[in-house]
Amino acid sequence: MKERIYREYGGLLTVVGLLMLLVHTMIVGYWYSNPIIISRLYNDPRTTIVLGFLPLGIILTCSGVIIRTRFREGNQFLIKDGGLIHSGNPWYEGFESGLFLTSCGLVVSINQESKSTAHVGYRIVSAKRATHTACVVKEGRAVLDMVAKRSGH
Fold this sequence. Notes:
Elements: H1 2-33, H2 35-40, H3 45-70, E1 76-79, E2 86-90, E3 99-102, E4 107-109, E5 123-125, H4 133-151
Helix pairs in contact: 1-3
């Protein structure tokens, strides 16, 4: 849950930084399109504030992107009672935490009780890849589709 909050915070920083860069670009573009305004801006303290938007916007945008990449979601591998390993991503439908949507289409819970699904009692394992057949087929199909799009076929 903490990672999700960090990702949201990183997204907010990125958006605020991009808005600051947009405002800076619009104001500076307006100044340079009107030569009369440029001569009045040399002694105006507001000029320093607007020119400060550029480095601050760059810093906020870069910080937000770094935070989002550091706390990005990855595939989780889930297992129940020594069975086959499913691969899945966190599922945020509703307010219940600990839900995952597997590659084979199951919504599973790492909790012992769940109001959203009957597939409960899974646990997260550190595996290299999934062993559940439907999950492997779905992941393999996604990889093949990605390769086909890159090569242009």
